[in-house]
Amino acid sequence: MFHRDDDVISFLEQTMELQIPKELLENKSKMIAYIEDNFKVEIPDSVQKKKKITNFLAKINQEFCNFLAQRRFLNRLKVWLFITILFVPLCFFFYFVSRHSDYVFFQQFHFAFLIGGFVFILVGIFLLTSIFRIQRTYQIRWRKMHTVLYSLLVIPILFFSAFIWMLYGSDSSYRTQFIQDVMNTKNYQYLANLFFNQDMIQQSLEHFIPFSYHGASSNQLYEFKPIEFEMNTYANSYEEEILKKDHPNDIYKIIKIQGTLRDGISKYSGYMTVVYEPSKVKIGTSIGAGVDDSSFGQILSQISKNYNALVAMNAGGFYDPNWDSNGGIPHGMVIQNGKLLTNFRRGLDSGGMIGFDENHRLVLRNVSAEEALDMKIRDAVDWGPYLIVDGVNYFKEESYQWACARTVIGQRKDGIVLLLVIDGDQPHSKGASYSDLADIMERYGAYNAANLDGGTSTSMVENHEYINIPFNGKKRTIRSLPNAWIVVE
What is the DSSP letter of 30? Predict the structure, then answer.
């Protein structure tokens, strides 16, 4: 752009930036005086040289002013380009968080997007403006500042992109590790809830934790002890709640369950159905459950109506590819009346068998569907982990502290079946951890007990009416399910 004239180049090197008011260009003497006064350079006395310099200066100054205008435009374009490039992963970040988080703030995607984007733009403009000021103040060469600028902006871009991929990418190992680490603490569980909803947390933890915990397996196929309903004294208040019938011919009774979690602060609340005749506990399935894309589940009250059940409670988990809670494809084996209905896994170790044999004993074993049928299992689903096996509580230690809505099935040595639901993520009940569930079932005398699908799935109906409050972290929600444990006449 500039003419390669030694005098002019020397002059430009001394002045650094040539910014002469355009009105002085028409008066060369004023322009020369202006240059000498403001730029501290002396114009040569030689007339020929002075004319040469002033002529060049007039032309160069106009070119330089145009150059400055273009540079200012390019600089602004770079600033907004950098901000836009960094804003793109930020948009994706807010999108994924708002889609999967249970936090109300992030559920309002547009609001979060606008606030987050606005704040980020202000911060970006402030940083870039500060960089340019530092450059002018300390006369740092642009090439160095360019490197600094790239470093400050490219690093966050890479960070946000990597962070999004680790939390929401196809490789679930990072997500599982993150969720496991924070959910097994007492003070930082909110970090998992910030980025994921309860269903994603539950599935990540249950995929990571061995479902048949410690390799435990119920081996003692015991004979039921006679039940003494008319007792003058009971071992404890829990025993009395179980054995004291309202009416002698009752098939079941429902007990309100309340207490404090192991942390000594949070409360849990739920219901336990005590079933006196284990032969009355069976598996009920949704009419649309299957293993193809057209499969669909039904809500628990409808499953209950299908079988005219007295009580129904959700059972096994299901494949949920788009988190749309269709509930149509159950995980693992589903056995009903001694027949294998489905055995779908799709790469997920869904757990261990939880089922009743032909003698109505609750059997917890990590076996294949074929082995379960050979064992004369009449009704079963595949989930876990096992909480109590052959009278041994495998969650005595304060591990896996995450509390949420939970569902449990258990059986006492006298044959009484215990169906338990604990509400979660609500003011009246935070939920329960595996350790809390094992404690509850142990207090009520469970000899075998196993965790079932929880979270939003946790639900129980009596006479087709919900008695607990299914909740998805945002509002009361009734989810479609593939199957349920039902109590029939």
Answer: H
Q: Is the pLDDT reported for residue 5 higher than 50?
A: no
Residues paired with residue 285 on neighbouring β-strands, in sequence order: 483
CA dist., res. 248 & res. 446, Å (int): 22
Model confidence pLDDT, tens digit, residues 293-324: 788 899 999 999 999 999 999 999 888 765 56
pLDDT tens figures, 344-371: 875 444 568 999 999 999 999 988 899 9
The mean predicted confidence, pLDDT, of the chain is 77
For residues 429-440, b (16+ Cβ closer than 10 Å) or e, as one string? bbbbbbbbbbbb
Distance, in Å, from the CA atom of 354 to the CA atom of 211, rounded to the nearest integer, reads: 11
The answer to whether 147 and 131 have CB atoms below 8 angstroms apart is no
Q: What token pair was written down for 367?
A: 């076996």
Apex CA 208: angle with CA 207 and CA 211, to 5°?
65
Displacement of CA 345 from its chain's centroid (Å): 22
Per the CB < 8 A criterion, the answer to whether 454 and 414 are in contact is: no
Cα separation, 259 vs 270, in Å, equals: 9
Strands (DSSP E) found in 212-285: 252-260, 267-275, 281-285
- Cα–Cα distance, 154 to 164 (Å, whole number): 15
Q: Is 53 helix (H, G, I), strand (E, B) or coil?
A: helix
Buried b (16+ CB within 10 A) or exposed e, 323-344: eebbbbbbbbbbbbeeeebbbb
Q: What is the mean pLDDT of residues 173-198?
A: 68
pLDDT band, residue 109 (cuts 50/70/90) = very low
Provide the 3-class DSSP secondary structure of residue 319. strand
**Alpha-carbon span 140 to 136, nearest angstrom:** 7
For residues 488 and 310, the answer to whether their CB atoms sit within 8 Å is yes
474: pLDDT strictly greater than 80: no
Confidence (pTM)? 0.64
- Map tokens 């989810």 to a residue: 479
In the 8-state DSSP scheme, what is residue 349? -
pLDDT at 451: 93
Partners of residue 275 on adjacent β-strands: 252, 417
Residues 43 and 32 sit within 8 Å (Cβ to Cβ) = yes
How would you class 198 by CB atoms within 10 Å of its CB: exposed for 0-12, middle for 13-18, buried for 19 or more?
buried
Q: Residue 213 and residue 76: Cα distance in Å, rounded?
A: 60
What does the block give as tokens for 432? 């329960």
443-468 per-position pLDDT tens digit:
999 999 999 999 889 999 999 999 99
